[in-house]
Amino acid sequence: MQRLTPEQLRSHRWYGTETLRSFSHRARTRQLGLSAEEHMGKPVIGIVNTWSELNPCHIHLRERAQEVKRGVWQAGGYPVELPVMSLSETFQKPTTMLYRNLLAMETEEMLRSHPVDAAVLMGGCDKTTPALLMGAISMDLPVVFVPSGPMIPGAYRGEALGSGSDMWRYWADKQAGLVGENVMSGVEEGIARSPGHCMTMGTASTMTSVAEVLGMTLPGAASIPAVASAHSRMAAASGRRAVGLAWEDLRPSAILGAEAYADAVTAVLALGGSTNAVIHLIAMARRSGVELTLDHFDEASRRVPVLADLRPSGGYLMEDFYLAGGLPALLGRIRDLLHLDRPTVSGRTLGETLQDAEVHDDKVIRRRDAPLSAEGGLAVLRGNLAPAGAVIKHVAAEPRLLRHTGPAVVFDGHRDLMRRIDDESLPITADSVLVLRGAGPRGGPGMPEHGMLPIPGRLLRMGVRDMLRISDARMSGTSYGACVLHVAPESHVGGPLALVRDGDLITVDVEARRLSLEVPEEELARRRSRWQAPGTVYRRGYGSLYDAHIMQADEGCDFDFLTGAGGAPEPDTE
Ligand code: FES
Fold first, then answer.
1. Is residue 482 in a domain?
2. How far is the CA of 459 from the centre of ligand 1 (A)?
3. Same domain, 403 and 512
4. Which of 291, 477, 536, 554 has its CB 3.0 to 4.6 Å from that of 203, i.e. a possible disulfide?
């Protein structure tokens, strides 16, 4: 293993040379209150923190940053906290996905422009994980990721409540007239009881698990509840390890090869993870110079069983998963499907980190011979309605809808949907196919999580709880139902979804991986010739940059100028 000398540290160019600039940097560090002995010759560890008072999933990260600093000091490093924007899934509108690439850019440039030798990335709420990792991958500095950790289970009158999933369920019950205000106010009080990210296997738990299986966290980090003492210990240990990473100069490019991404896909499927992982992993892989496509997910989905019995696909919550052994225990169960010899930030191979992994509860982490579902939870559909692909999490859908033909009921954008969905005169039956367009990466804008279209109240009252829904939107990882998502190309750029009319027959056949609009090609050509591209809502600012450069869902929704590895020079420090 290589070990840098203090003169080879990146920060040496800021602090250690005989130049006016270096003199100025040392003087300004005195101004920060640090003597030369406290920092000179030590690796500078940036603590990239997404703490915010509008992000309940990260509200404990200010405290955790102190624990990371403790670890950095203990190991002989110099910690510096670098606040970056927080992407609060709950509060940020129109959608955090609009800003994922902005946080990725901020992370990359923050690390590049400062005297940082290695970094600890702190996040967990949905898009923060891919954003921080995408930025770090592009900068290619040694980093360790500290997941914010899931919150404790929700509770209402003795019932465990899961983030998102149980909110949608209770809301549907309320719309169906089955529960009243008292129940809803009890659920409101009890569904989010502590700091930490959503504690179902939603996007947050999926993406922090992805960070771990990729080898970018300490082993076991992703499953630790946010408020557990073990979480504080993991934060301090990550700080200590970041110092080691700086000396070893172990960069993401040495960790994140094709095998790492293949294992991440496998883990997402075994977890019954969020469909959002498809987009984020493709974007991350492209930044690593690794080709990852929808087909990789579909191929893996046919052979990887879903073993984690976690909501929304299963029944348990993240604390149960942690107590059952957490991600290492699950990975131990699919050891034969993984690449065990690849490196991780821990300094050990993936296989070595799984050596002691043990499942403590077969109900939560199922045995291979008793999976939640024999096939993985995602299918990639293609056809004349989605030439570049669409995804469905079929493990979370009613089986009767996995092969279905029905008449389309089309909504142009989310506003139109909310205005008309409960219109009693709409010809919607349980067999209708609800279509939402104008909700993709450009049309949304930001590809909001509107893909779990609400079921009309009239049908809810009749007991209907799932319908076939198709959109170019995403869906929250905590959602469920027969929702075909990420239809590409999106309608806003002229994808076939733009051509669908009320009453057109649409067929979904998950087994055959087919999504078809049953309209003759000549008629579609006629409609296409009359189609007019919608304009952009942005005239200036970040939105116009986004609109000009965002790529489609099957390409990971990165900006076209950010994909690919390397390409940016180190700043001149003289
Ligand atoms: Fe932050 Fe769900 S709202 S993870």
1. yes
2. 29
3. yes
4. 477
136 and 243 co-located in one domain:
yes
Expressed in angstroms and rounded, the spacing between residue 278 Cα and the centre of ligand 1 is 18
| Residues 145, 58 within the same domain | yes
125 lines ligand 1 (CB under 6 A): yes
The structural domain count of the chain equals 4
Q: How many angstroms separate the CA atoms of 421 and 414, rounded?
A: 10
113 CA to centre of own chain: 26
Q: Indicate which atom in ligand 1 lies nearest the CA of residue 124.
A: 4
Ligand 1 atom with the smallest distance to the CA of 90 is 3
Nearest CA to ligand 1 atom 2: 198
- CA dist list (Å): 453 to 405, 438, 466, 470: 18, 13, 10, 9
> Tens-digit pLDDT profile for the chain (574 aa)?
789 999 999 999 999 999 999 999 999 999 999 999 999 999 999 999 999 999 999 999 999 999 999 999 999 999 999 999 999 999 999 999 999 999 999 999 999 999 999 999 999 999 999 999 999 999 999 999 999 999 999 999 999 999 988 998 899 899 888 999 999 999 999 999 999 999 999 999 999 999 999 999 999 999 999 999 999 999 999 999 999 999 999 999 999 999 999 999 999 999 999 999 999 999 999 999 999 999 999 999 999 999 999 998 899 999 999 999 999 999 999 999 999 999 999 999 999 999 999 999 999 999 999 999 998 789 999 999 999 999 999 888 899 999 999 999 999 999 999 999 999 899 999 999 999 999 999 999 999 999 999 999 899 889 999 999 999 999 987 778 899 999 999 999 999 999 999 999 999 999 999 999 999 999 999 999 999 999 888 999 999 999 999 999 999 999 999 987 777 889 988 8
Domain check: are 46 and 29 in the same one? no
Phi and psi at residue 46, in whole multiples of 5°? -75, 130
Atom number of ligand 1 nearest to Cα 476: 2
Q: Is the beta carbon of 89 within 6 A of some atom in ligand 1?
A: yes
- 3-class DSSP assignment, residue 344: coil
pTM of the model: 0.97
Q: Does any ligand 1 atom lie closer than 6 A to the CB of residue 66? A: no
Exposure of 527 by Cβ count < 10 A (0-12 exposed, 13-18 middle, 19+ buried)?
A: middle
Candidates 129, 149, 154, 126; CA nearest to 228 is 149
Residue 497 dihedral angles phi and psi, to the nearest 5°: -55, -30
Ligand 1: which of 97, 126, 194 to mutate, most ligand atoms within 8 Å of CB? Answer: 126
- Nearest-atom number in ligand 1 for the CA of 88 is 1
> Which of 50, 61, 125, 161 has most ligand 1 atoms within 8 Å of its beta carbon, as the pocket-test mutant?
125
Give the whole-angstrom CA distance, residue 456 versus residue 423.
8
